[in-house]
Amino acid sequence: MIISTTKESLATPLALVYGAADTRGTVPMLGTVLLKATDEGQLSMLCSDTGMLARTLTPVEVKQAGELAVDVRRFFDLVKAVPEKQTIEISLEEKGTLLVKAGRSRFRLPTLAAADYPRMTPDREGRISVTMNARRLADMIADVSSSMADADLRPFLNGALFTLDKVGLWLVSTDGHRMNVSHEPILGADNLDPRNVIVQRKTVLLAKKLLGQGGNVTLTLGPKNIQFTFDNGAVLLGTAVDGTYPNWRGVLPTTNEKVTVSTDRFANALHMLAATSDDREKQDAMKTKVEMSITKTITTLRRGESGLCELESESSTDKPFELAFNIHYLMDAIGTMRGVCDEAIIGYAASATAIAMRPKDKEYPLSVVMPLRV
């Protein structure tokens, strides 16, 4: 394999697939990137940890087609270190090492045989596909990413639920303490059979990065996998998480009262209150508590004796309401709203089971936060 290209042509697509590799595992091949140069002038870069696979394509000058696997971390670090706009020539030497030339510099990296690279072949039976704007899907992932669990003993919570039904696409995530829901109507969805796929956290976060390229994406949901296919030839494939996702619609709180707040002012108040805590307190539920009090025209946020913020707001009732929350959960919820609206509605009820936060002028995204029981 012999190719000639530039730093820019390598670094950007390589950064997009890097996250699919298993760079901390015990199987060396899973920490590599599979490079494949074709006679059509394309370089394919592919990483996989056997649970997910990411591939990008970039145009290069191919002097000799071929493929090889090289340690992705070392290769990526080397490419990033090359000066801007520098021409890079990559070739596979007879002794099996990768020779990288950049200007008057020479570098050699060990390689592994491409034939030994693990393959992921999706089960194509029962799959359904829809095409949508990539950035819109990235925004939907941003809506729900903060409430995905991480290293929970219940694997199905360590990711997000992707659902296609007759009213469109739904993304849901929960860690048991809060929940986020995002929705997008899909033209023609009423003709599709409903499909639910639980997608692991790592795949969801890498999908968001790839979707940031823009353009359109074809989203394919199968019984045991999910695939994102992009206009530029990039592909992300992930296996589904086994298990049954909680009935999220069944736990949506009934809220008969509401208060309207400025997302900027609410977020700023929480950030100021959070600034009064230290790192040790962040691990203590009692010390991350913020009390929220609502009256007809004022919403008060209080963090013990450390700080208090009063905000102008508009409540639907004269009856006062008070509840305590994890300040970081509230910050994540209002952060989601802040990205899509200037004013948010916080729905609540006297039963105080949870609050539901959404934009003032639409139903989604929706953030549900459970109160602290401390």
What does this 3D model show about the protein?
The structure is a single chain. By secondary structure, this protein is of the alpha+beta class. It folds into 3 domains: 115 residues, DNA Polymerase III, subunit A, domain 2 (DNA Polymerase III, Chain A, domain 2), CATH 3.10.150.10; 123 residues, DNA Polymerase III, Chain A, domain 2 (Roll), CATH 3.10.150.10; 118 residues, Roll (DNA Polymerase III, Chain A, domain 2). It contains 6 helices and 26 strands. The protein has a 13-stranded antiparallel sheet with strand order 5-1-7-8-9-6-2-3-4-17-16-15-10. Helix 1 packs antiparallel against helix 2 and helix 3 runs antiparallel to helix 4. The longest helix has 12 residues. The N and C termini lie far apart (63 Å). The model has no long low-confidence stretch (mean pLDDT 94).
Describe the protein's topology:
Layout: E1 2-6, H1 7-18, E2 32-37, E3 42-48, E4 52-59, E5 61-64, E6 66-71, H2 72-81, E7 87-92, E8 97-102, E9 105-112, E10 128-133, H3 134-144, E11 159-165, E12 168-174, E13 178-184, E14 195-200, H4 201-211, E15 216-221, E16 225-230, E17 235-239, E18 257-262, H5 263-274, E19 289-294, E20 298-303, E21 307-312, E22 314-315, E23 321-326, H6 327-338, E24 343-348, E25 355-359, E26 366-369
Antiparallel strand pairs: 1-5, 1-7, 2-3, 2-6, 3-4, 4-17, 6-9, 7-8, 8-9, 10-15, 11-12, 11-14, 12-13, 13-26, 15-16, 16-17, 18-22, 18-24, 19-20, 19-23, 20-21, 24-25, 25-26
Enumerate how many helices there are, as a single number.
6
The CATH topology of the largest domain corresponds to DNA Polymerase III, Chain A, domain 2
**Average pLDDT, all residues:** 94
| Side-by-side strand order of the widest sheet | 5-1-7-8-9-6-2-3-4-17-16-15-10
- What is the number of strand segments? 26
Determine the CATH superfamily of the largest domain.
Answer: DNA Polymerase III, subunit A, domain 2
Name of the CATH class of the largest domain: Alpha Beta
Structural category: alpha+beta
The biggest beta sheet is recorded as:
13 strands, antiparallel
Helix percentage range? 10-25%
The number of distinct structural domains comes to: 3
Task: Please give the radius of gyration in angstroms.
Answer: 24 Å
Estimate what percentage of residues fall within beta strands.
35-45%
Quickly give the CATH architecture of the largest domain: Roll
Distance between the termini: 63 Å
Backbone shape:
elongated
Segments where pLDDT lies below 50 for 5+ residues?
none
